[in-house]
């Protein structure tokens, strides 16, 4: 006769769970696996669509992320980025904020500060060349932004997490 696992999946996940447990309790692991595979196949199209949307988001914004790496801080403009995407700056900003939880400009600055933290923690680099490399006006500008967003001065960050350098 047919066991509880022979019926097609319908109803709630709790029902699927009961059927799977009955199959396991009856020592029919093949039937339990079949129930699991059937349950996953029901969700496969939804999961794949979600994965495509997420990958699509990344691919859509990949040009922006590349621009963040290449662009100096003083040269960043949401208007220019939006123009590259062929959309209005407000639309780009709204879409970016909706997907990433912060504005494009905030993300850009956060990424520059992340790079500064990374360099300060692993290299004995002076602030002036680092500020120039990342596109800050000068070491003072980098230091001020760093303290405002990280909560400590670059020198303190370096003392706590990295190597020291002369010429700050």
In short:
The protein is built from 8 helices and no strands. The protein is mainly alpha-helical. Mean pLDDT is 79; it is low at 1-7.
Description:
- It is a single chain.
- The chain has about 170 residues and is mostly helical.
- Helices cover about 75% and strands about 0% of the residues.
- The protein is built from 8 helices and no strands.
- The chain has helices spanning about 15-25, 30-70, 80-85, 90-100, 105-120, 125-135, 140-150, 155-160.
- The chain is elongated and about 70 Å long.
Oligomer: single chain
In terms of DSSP E residues, the strand content is: under 5%
State mean pLDDT (0 to 100 scale). 79
Number of strands: 0
Structural class: mainly alpha
Query: How many helices in DSSP terms?
Result: 8
Low-confidence stretches: 1-7
- Write the element-wise H/E pattern from the N-terminal end onward: HHHHHHHH
- Relative helix content: over 70%
Largest sheet: none
Output the radius of gyration: 26 Å
Give the N-to-C terminal Cα separation.
81 Å
Shape: elongated
């Amino acid at each position: 006769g047919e066991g509880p696992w022979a019926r097609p999946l319908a109803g709630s996940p709790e029902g699927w769970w009961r059927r799977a447990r009955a199959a396991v309790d009856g020592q029919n692991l093949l039937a339990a696996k079949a129930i699991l595979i059937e349950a996953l196949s029901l969700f496969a199209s939804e999961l794949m669509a979600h994965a495509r949307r997420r990958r699509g988001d990344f691919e859509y914004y990949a040009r922006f992320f590349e621009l963040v790496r290449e662009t100096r801080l003083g040269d960043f403009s949401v208007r220019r980025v939006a123009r590259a995407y062929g959309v209005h700056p407000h639309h780009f900003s709204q879409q970016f904020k909706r997907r990433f939880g912060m504005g494009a400009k905030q993300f850009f600055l956060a990424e520059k500060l992340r790079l500064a933290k990374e360099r300060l923690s692993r290299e004995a680099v002076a602030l002036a060349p680092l500020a120039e490399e990342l596109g800050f006006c000068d070491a003072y500008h980098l230091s001020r932004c760093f303290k405002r967003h990280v909560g400590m001065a670059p020198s303190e960050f370096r003392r706590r997490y990295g190597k020291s350098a002369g010429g700050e």
